[in-house]
Specification:
Elements lengths: L11 H41 L15 H35 L1 H5 L2 H23 L1 E7 L5 E6 L4 H31 L15 E4 L2 E4 L2 E2 L3 E5 L6 E5 L3 E5 L4 H8 L1
Antiparallel strand pairs: 1-2, 3-4, 3-8, 5-6, 6-7
Helix pairs in contact: 1-2, 4-5
Length: 256
């Protein structure tokens, strides 16, 4: 049998649709398994209770010996209880996996995740372009201003062909995810903050915490560090809420 391999990259929209379908099928299968495991746990507990009912309530083996049948039931009761506990733990774990699978696609399309993916794809595109075009990298700058550089020639041959194909794939993925990002900003799912909307003195929410803005840079916002008397930076897409600083003029008008 001859197997033909298509080396062309697939449309990102088709890839994402297939991924979502597989994710949904996995979530459905895990949900069904969670139901079966829960039923098995209930049955195991019921079996343990039935065996336990064979022992007289309040019996003290130090005062009166158990009947032979009752004594023989004790190991079975312990085994049944162990089985019930194990079945309950299995049901709990399966339920957790089913819940995680159910939100898998939503997590993939979370606004911050989408923006991070765009950053990575942009970096990949720039790296491949540098390899295709060739580039010069500065290794060191001496005190007199002399630069020591490293020159990388443009890629050639099969390597260039692979890079060209990869660049086309990355460009298609970047177009797709940038479209998703634009939709999220349009619908209000993502804030789309930038240097034009954030000013020093504003308060921003990043990773669940509020920070005062020290500087609004071109790509990042500078905020106080939580680890000491330093500062940290975060990309604008990680801002999930924003409180503009009060305008002194507005305060004067309000007080007047």
């Amino acid at each position: 049998m001859i197997v033909a391999i298509d080396g062309r990259h697939r449309d990102p929209e088709v890839v994402e649709a297939d991924r979502a379908a597989r994710q949904q099928a996995r979530a459905d299968a895990l949900a069904d398994k969670a139901d079966r495991d829960a039923a098995a746990a209930d049955a195991a507990h019921q079996r343990a209770r039935q065996l336990g009912d064979q022992i007289p309530f309040g019996h003290d083996p130090r005062r009166a010996p158990l009947r032979t049948a009752d004594a023989a039931a004790r190991p079975a009761i312990h085994t049944a209880m162990d089985t019930a506990v194990a079945a309950a733990e299995q049901a709990k774990e399966t339920e957790r996996r089913a819940a995680a699978a159910a939100v898998g696609t939503d997590a993939r399309y979370h606004p911050v995740t989408v923006a991070n993916r765009i950053q990575k794809l942009t970096a990949d595109r720039n790296r491949i372009t540098r390899l295709l075009d060739g580039h010069v990298r500065t290794l060191a700058v001496l005190g007199d201003g002399t630069r020591h550089t490293e020159t990388t020639a443009p890629a050639t041959g099969p390597f260039r062909d692979r890079l060209t194909a990869r660049l086309a794939e990355v460009a298609d993925q970047l177009t797709y995810w940038e479209g998703i990002r634009d939709q999220q900003i349009t619908t209000g799912q993502a804030a789309g903050h930038s240097q034009a909307t954030i000013r020093p003195g504003d308060a921003v929410r990043i990773r669940g915490r509020w920070y005062p803005v020290i500087r609004a840079n071109r790509k990042t916002v500078t905020v106080p560090s939580t680890l000491g008397p330093w500062t940290d930076t975060a990309p604008y897409h990680e801002i999930t809420d924003h409180r503009p600083a009060a305008d002194p003029a507005e305060d004067d008008n309000t007080c007047g």
